[in-house]
Amino acid sequence: MLRFERVGLRYADGPVLDDFDLAVAPGELVVLLGPSGCGKTTLLRLAARLAAPSTGRVVNRFARTAVVFQEPRLLPWWSALDNVAFALAARGVAPAERRARAAALLGRLGFSPADLRKRPAALSGGMQGRTAIARALVVEPDLVLMDEPFAALDVGLRRDLQDLVRGAVDRDGAAVLFVTHDVTEAVRLADRLVVLSRRPARVVHDVRTQPEASPAAIHRAAAALLDTPAVRAALLARHGEPGQPERPEIRPGRQPASAAPSWPAR
Ligand SMILES: Nc1ncnc2c1ncn2[C@@H]1O[C@H](COP(=O)(O)OP(=O)(O)OP(=O)(O)O)[C@@H](O)[C@H]1O
């Protein structure tokens, strides 16, 4: 179980999270949707213990947490194979088995034997992304934190990798907390959809759902989601529109002229 309990996190320019609660159970794939800058990456960093909350607590009882960041973050002087195999070294797996497991997984992700030997600089962006995903999944994690992992990939590849992630949940019982801006990707993957408001992030919509398979069903489900008023308000409002949480409070007579609101008065 992963639990955010009344979590607050504040930077110099104000709170990113304030009294935030969310739980992720084993075997569920939770997709986080929310406007840019609302705090999605921050939540993943907290779950991975790469950041600490200012208030409240983050409880992560999973034994093996793996993270796929927005950028691949591969070690540039190592081959694709060694980048993936290295993740198993920390788990005490013997060198020959490390390389065999890494090669098998990269092979499933479309790497040829020659590709396995390439350093990241010689891999395409999509191949670097796949290497990072393989590095996360090779340890058979029970919690995978994924931050827009497929953003740079073409549609076919994206579908293969989405299936791989679903497999980790359906076959191995892993939990996944998955950040995306792509609503169709969200409805294709999710067991549960969580939509966040603008910063400081609040849960404005939290529903259990069935991962959708056919393109028609995916588009119907995505349209229905975007038709939900709270979701519309969170995802479709333009920055600076009235009623958004990041709108500064204006007190008549107390506001310096330079801080005059830029949105139209109502
Ligand atoms: N180290 C930091 N110092 C100060 N502010 C930060 C820091 N990290 C993130 N922020 C701010 O916290 C807010 C949330 O950032 P975060 O990266 O979690 O958003 P996000 O929802 O993942 O955005 P996106 O969808 O654009 O990736 C943003 O306003 C960001 O500028």
TrEMBL record:
Record-linked InterPro entries: AAA+_ATPase, ABC_transporter-like_ATP-bd, ABC_transporter_ATP-bind, P-loop_NTPase
Biased composition (Basic and acidic residues): 239-252
Molecular functions (GO terms): ATP binding; ATP hydrolysis activity
PROSITE patterns (UniProt xref): ABC_TRANSPORTER_2
Occurrences of domain ABC transporter (ranges): 2-223
Keywords: ATP-binding, Nucleotide-binding, Transport
Stored SMART domains: AAA (SM00382)
Disordered, as annotated region: 239-266
Family: Belongs to the ABC transporter superfamily.
Name of the protein this chain belongs to: Taurine import ATP-binding protein TauB
Organism of this sequence: Rhodoplanes serenus
Upper taxonomic lineage: Bacteria, Pseudomonadati, Pseudomonadota, Alphaproteobacteria, Hyphomicrobiales
